[in-house]
């Protein structure tokens, strides 16, 4: 490299390092605040069970805020994916406060939802503002969106490697440069350490016993992983079904979460349990040591799809953790594998199937549970990925890669047979 190239490269490196520090710190700080606020509203709800009767009012507030102030950002994560594939205009910064407040309202009053969507949208909205500040072109703007997704995911779950890979894989490495890949990892770690700096703790899970891989264990892993993939398929289709049903039958958008919230509160009253409200973290933790009832994961699929389809805010990933962990825990009654291992496999495998991101989910499993379970986790994630069908939780995600080619080949074969 000659002196002229060095002179051009150093300012460029400095600029992107500065951008990564800003995005990582701001997104990490936003996630830290969100996690603390989320814990606060969760504690309020858990000590005041009657508050679920206010869910319709909370839903109306969320619906009105997006209808009158946030129509441009109501697509949420799908907007980030669309802007990456077909850049149009800068994502409005108001996406961040709207999704933050909407998610906190959802959890305060008991809606069944997650948190990753909130962190990713806040990260994406924050990152995209630097397009104007640094006068970046379309190619660089794609990098900004990757950085926002990476920082948001890594900071909210405490998994920087998985966060960086998720940002790349959810886009299926579409026109992603080496520069974007390196910066994705850099910003993920900056965001992760920012949350650590604010002394906000993440939940820890353990798999204390991991058996040796053998032909027998492999024969059990395959059908179990297929079930995880089918659960992911059911969740994705359920969420899209409820969204379409509410949109078709209730034309005024703010009324959708109001009516949905009212129906949800009534159903929870008759069921007589709070385990399906909010994130459901206590149920996830318990599933690693105690077998879950065989209907728990199905009800979580139903209630989360209903909540998000009605127009409440949050995310899908933690409910996917809930669904996978409880399904794995239930299967421990029939499958001769350790309960914590099955719960951990389901935890990430259902997520893998629903988002088409087996690599990121495998790495996430290693970050959360340790390298000892890597072979089990990776096998489960990839089998669930193939078994979950072509529909994921994100409408705007383009299906590419091995699964795409497999399904296209299958379609062509069916047409030929016909």
Q: What is the general shape?
A: globular
Distance between the termini: 60 Å
Q: Characterize the largest beta sheet: strand count, sense, and whether it forms a barrel.
A: none
Count of discrete domains: 2
Class by SSE composition: mainly alpha
Could you give the order of the helices and strands?
Answer: HHHHHHHHHHHHHHHHHH
What is the correct CATH architecture of the largest domain? Orthogonal Bundle
Which superfamily, in CATH terms, is the homologous superfamily of the largest domain? Clc chloride channel
Question: Describe it for me?
Answer:
With 418 residues, the chain is an all-alpha fold. It has two domains: 3-197, Clc chloride channel; 215-404, Clc chloride channel (Orthogonal Bundle). It has 18 helices and no strands. The chain has helices spanning 3-46, 55-69, 77-85, 95-108, 116-128, 130-133, 138-157, 160-169, 178-197, 215-249, 255-271, 281-287, 296-310, 317-331, 339-355, 358-369, 374-387, 401-417. Helix 7 (138-157) runs parallel beside helix 9 (178-197) and helix 12 (281-287) runs parallel beside helix 14. The longest helix has 44 residues, at 3-46.
């Amino acid at each position: 490299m000659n002196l002229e190239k060095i002179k051009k490269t150093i300012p460029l490196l400095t600029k992107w390092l500065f951008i990564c520090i800003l995005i990582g710190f701001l997104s990490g700080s936003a996630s830290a605040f969100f996690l603390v606020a989320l814990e606060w509203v969760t504690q309020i709800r858990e000590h005041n069970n009657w508050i679920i009767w206010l869910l319709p009012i909370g839903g109306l507030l969320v619906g009105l805020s997006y209808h009158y102030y946030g129509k441009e950002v109501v697509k949420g994560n799908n907007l980030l994916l669309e802007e990456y594939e077909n850049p149009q205009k800068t994502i409005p910064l108001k996406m961040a406060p709207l999704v933050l407040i909407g998610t906190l309202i959802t959890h305060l009053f008991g809606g069944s939802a997650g948190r990753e969507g909130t962190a990713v949208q806040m990260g994406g909205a924050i990152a995209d503002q630097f397009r104007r500040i640094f006068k970046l072109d379309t190619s660089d703007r794609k990098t900004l969106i990757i950085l926002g997704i990476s920082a948001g995911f890594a900071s909210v779950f405490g998994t920087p490697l998985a966060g960086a890979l998720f940002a790349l894989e959810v886009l299926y490495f579409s026109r992603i440069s080496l520069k974007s890949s390196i910066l994705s990892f850099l910003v993920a770690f900056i965001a992760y350490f920012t949350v650590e700096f604010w002394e906000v703790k993440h939940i820890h899970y353990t798999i204390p016993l991991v058996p040796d891989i053998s032909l027998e264990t492999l024969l059990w892993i395959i059908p179990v992983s297929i079930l995880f993939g089918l659960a992911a398929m059911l969740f994705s289709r359920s969420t899209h079904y409820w969204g379409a049903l509410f949109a078709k039958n209730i034309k005024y958008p703010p009324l959708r979460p109001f009516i949905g919230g009212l129906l949800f509160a009534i159903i929870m009253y008759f069921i007589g349990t709070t385990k399906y409200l909010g994130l459901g973290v206590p149920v996830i933790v318990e599933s690693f040591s105690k077998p879950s009832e065989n209907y728990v994961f199905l009800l979580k699929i139903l209630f989360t799809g209903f909540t998000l389809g009605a127009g409440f805010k949050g995310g899908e990933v933690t409910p996917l953790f809930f669904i996978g962990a409880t399904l794995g825990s239930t299967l421990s009654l029939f499958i001769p594998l350790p309960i914590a291992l099955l719960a951990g496999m389901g935890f990430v495998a259902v997520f893998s199937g629903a988002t088409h991101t087996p690599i990121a989910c495998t790495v996430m499993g290693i970050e959360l549970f340790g390298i000892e379970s890597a072979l089990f986790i990776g096998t489960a994630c990839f089998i669930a990925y193939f078994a979950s069908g072509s529909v994921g939780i994100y409408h705007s995600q383009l299906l590419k890669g091995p699964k795409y080619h497999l399904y296209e080949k299958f379609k062509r074969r069916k047409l030929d047979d016909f």
